[in-house]
Amino acid sequence: MNWRRAHWIVGTATLVVFLLSGAYMRWIRVPPVPQLDDVTRAVYRSRHLFILLSAVLNLAFALAPSAKQRARQIVSACVLVAPALFLAAFALEPAQGIHGAPFSQIALYLLFVAAVILVRVART
Asked: Among 40, 84, 90, 102, which one has the highest count of C-beta atoms within 10 angstroms of its own C-beta?
């Protein structure tokens, strides 16, 4: 499978997961997210948006022209892993509050590394 196809599959699947996590927060979770304390609600909502961010990045990579091959592989790996980490963050981190965010932290660092590589490749 090529990188573009992988990004398309992961991006599309992650977009569906984003919709499902929104439905979970609104209709399934007891108590509903709007009734939670401020910190827990903020953690749920931010992790929900992180899922959307990783979906959009993957879909953008599915359409973007290829950069230098090695850089593209590293960036693609970072972006492809992010949705799984953000989904884990959505499921596990709200119970830990704002101080327990290992999955979000790793995913955001990976996306930062991807951005730095893209800037560096674009300048050469």
From this structure: 90
**Which of these ranges, 37-41, 59-63, 87-91, 104-108, has the smallest mean pLDDT?**
59-63
Burial profile 47-61: b = 16 or more Cβ within 10 angstroms, e = fewer: bbebbbbbbebbbeb
Q: How many domains does the chain have?
A: 1
What is the full DSSP assignment across 41-60? Answer: HHHHHHHHHHHHHHHHHHHH
pLDDT digits (tens, 9 = 90+) for 8-24: 899 899 999 999 999 99
What are the tens digits of pLDDT across the range 56-90?
Answer: 888 888 877 765 778 778 888 999 999 999 999 99
CB atoms within 10 A of CB 37: 8
**Residue 62 structure tokens:** 């599915």
Residue 31: burial class (beta carbons within 10 Å; 0-12, 13-18, 19+): exposed
Q: Position 39: which residue type? A: V
Which of 80, 81, 83 is closest to 52 using CA atoms? 83
Domain span including residue 33: 3-123
